[in-house]
Automatic annotation (TrEMBL):
This is Angiopoietin like 5. InterPro entries: Fibrinogen-like_C, Fibrinogen_a/b/g_C_1, Fibrinogen_a/b/g_C_dom, Fibrinogen_C-term_domain, Fibrinogen_CS. Keywords: Disulfide bond, Membrane, Transmembrane, Transmembrane helix. It comes from Salvator merianae. The keyword Hydrolase does not apply. The lineage of its organism: Eukaryota, Metazoa, Chordata, Craniata, Vertebrata. One of its GO terms (cellular component) is extracellular space. Residues 110-352 form the Fibrinogen C-terminal domain. The chain crosses the membrane at residues 42-60. It holds the Pfam family Fibrinogen_C. It comes from the Eukaryota.
Length: 354
């Protein structure tokens, strides 16, 4: 662009020089012989026009060449950028293929400053000074070697609830290994399982005891709940056996079920790769012989007791299949049939909380 402007300036200067020369020549002739008819310098004029035409042609050619060179430079830059993007995408794909197959939605352990021991403790301490909204908080329970993030419900029934499981849309798969159920998985802002180790540390603090609230929503938008006035888990060596207190609510006590063999209270947690369900060697379920309750429930994890009548980690919204493989709380019935469950949450809170 600068070269084009410079050429234009030279051409304009040349034109002004020729006009000046023409005018000076004219006055010189008039001064020498004012009686003689003056004849214009045609040769000079023709030379001027020829030079002007040649200059314009040269200027046009140089401008065209400059524009072509600029376009070639831009195309070269675009080609270079395209090659860089392709190379970057190839590296990303290579990294993805090299990464371990462990699910990416398993919760990480991050070293951060905690807000309290659990959501009840946060409500007690921070809530005494300012309003504590529901949301994500960092807790560090007694006995845990690291802090971790949890979802706290601070408005529901007085607040202070730590949510340990939540299912709404069926986006997060609960068909998981023992390792996944240990550490937790999912999205705390959506669907998740907090993790057996984290639940254990929360419920086994020396200065607190906890209650459990199970909230259920049916596919036709009706609600029910089951509450237990105490809740805690044994340690990993005992496969996180569940311990429940007295039941209250309108959904029925599915943890204990209708029969002794349905009772899941005091039973260990079980997955398809860590079978603790008590089917030795087989369980009889709806006139079927079942070797593994987790496998029968499509590889989901729960406190199975010969399968029982509760599994809130079952496959979300199973249709045209046996209800046994879905989200189950079979003591919640309508027209003598178990209600089809759309969403569920499990949350715990300190029992002394007011």
């Amino acid at each position: 662009i600068l070269s084009a402007s410079f050429c234009g300036l030279l051409l304009l200067s040349y034109c002004l020089f020729c006009i000046h020369y023409f005018v000076v020549g004219y006055h010189q002739v008039m001064a020498d012989s004012w009686l003689t008819a003056w004849a214009p310098p045609w040769a000079l004029l023709c030379s001027f026009l020829g030079n002007l035409q040649s200059s314009l042609v040269q200027y046009a050619r140089s401008t065209k060449k400059m524009i072509r060179n600029m376009m070639d430079d831009h195309q070269s830059s675009l080609d270079y950028l395209s090659n860089q993007v392709n190379e970057l995408m190839s590296r990303v794909m290579q990294l993805n293929s090299d990464m371990p197959r462990k699910p990416s939605d398993v919760f990480p352990h991050r070293a951060v400053q905690s807000h309290g021991l659990d959501c009840s403790d946060i409500k007690d301490t921070i809530g005494s000074v300012t309003k504590t909204p529901s949301g994500l908080y960092i807790i560090h329970p007694e006995g845990s070697s690291y802090p971790y993030e949890v979802l706290c419900e601070m408005d529901f029934r007085g607040g202070g609830w730590t949510v340990i499981q939540k299912r709404t849309e069926g986006i997060i798969e609960f068909q998981r290994t023992w390792s996944d159920y240990l550490d937790g998985f999912g999205d705390l802002s959506g669907e998740f399982w907090l993790g057996l180790r984290k639940i254990f540390h929360i419920t086994n603090q020396k200065t607190a005891s906890f209650m459990l609230f199970v909230g259920l929503e049916s596919e036709d938008d009706t609600y029910a709940y089951a509450s237990y006035d105490s809740f805690w888990l044994e340690d990993e060596a005992c496969s996180f056996k569940i311990h429940l207190g007295r039941y209250s609510g309108n959904a029925g006590d599915a943890f204990r079920g209708y029969r002794q063999e349905d009772n899941q209270n005091t039973l260990p947690f079980s997955t398809f790769d860590m079978d603790n369900d008590g089917c030795n060697p087989l369980c009889s379920l709806q006139e079927q012989l079942v070797k593994s309750c987790s496998n029968f429930s499509q590889q989901t994890g729960w406190w199975f007791s010969q399968c029982g009548v509760a599994n809130l980690n079952g496959v979300h919204r199973v249709t045209r299949k046996m209800l046994t493989t879905g989200i189950r709380w079979d003591t919640w019935t309508m027209n003598d049939q178990p209600v089809k469950i759309k969403s569920v949450s499990m949350k715990i809170r300190r029992t002394y909380f007011r």
